[in-house]
Design goal:
The protein is α+β, with helices and mostly antiparallel strands. It contains four helices and 13 strands. It has helices spanning 16-24, 52-59, 119-122, 187-199; strands at 3-10, 27-33, 46-51, 66-71, 74-85, 92-99, 106-115, 126-129, 133-138, 147-150, 159-161, 171-172, 179-184. It has a six-stranded mixed beta barrel. It has a four-stranded mixed beta sheet with strand order 10-7-9-12, with no helix packed on it. Strands 8-13-11 form a three-stranded antiparallel beta sheet, with no helix packed on it. It starts with a strand and ends with a helix. The relative contact order is 0.15.
Length: 200
Amino acid sequence: MKEITINAQLRKEFGKKASRDMRRAGNVPAVVYGVEKDEKGLPVSTSLVVTEKELAKLLYTPNVYIVNLNIEGKTVKAILKDLQCDFVTDHPVHVDFYQITEDKPVVMEIPVKLNGLAEGVKAGGKLTLNVRKLAVKALYTQFPDTLDIDVTGLGLGKSMKVAALSYEGLEIITSKEVVVCAVRMTRAARAAASESEAEA
């Protein structure tokens, strides 16, 4: 999977006013947690500040990345866990990163990629993608850039559910009943089918 470096600073000022001033300056509050635990065994979080410009490299792209968080010279490998945006401006207002290691599986959403020309499309149907990403669990070193799906044998009026998919080293977390893609009947295909029935 592709990796990207995001530069961050340790957050030194807290409170609502500090957060507002931070966002006005083009910065976004963030936290990273995951590996470190306190004496009670609870996750320890580190408060950060990331610029919107740095975050844009991660947020405004169809790709999914492993994040190398550069925190004042110290690198922490993580994934984007949660993103909160302003409901009016859609600007990010808070970001959660989850620290990852090579020996502990994590859940991540991976983009779906449809490959091949479906039989149903040849017959006049239209191929639709119902879900763009699927949640999978694996070691981060096992994550692919995309979940490739061969739709060549998908016929007219047929669909493909998550239950029909499997990938080595990956556990699909998304419900098995979710329809990933389908070949829908178009008006032209219905008309052609009706003509064939009438001739028969």
